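Quick start: read one record
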Amino acid sequence: MKPNRRIWVPLLVCALFIPIACKKSGEQTVADRAAERTAAVMPDYVGRQACIECHRDQYDLFVGSDHD
């Protein structure tokens, strides 16, 4: 017996979009929560001068490189 597309296509579309439609407004995604945790742990950029004392070798390799 051949499946009837008139039945299966709408059912498939509903199955895919119901979870999206049921998402509560204001509910965070996993990516949103991860970004918030990262922002909470990461300080603001303090400049390269703040790192030189402890990371002189890395600083010397970085300055003047293609990534500088």
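DSSP finds three helices and no strands in the chain.
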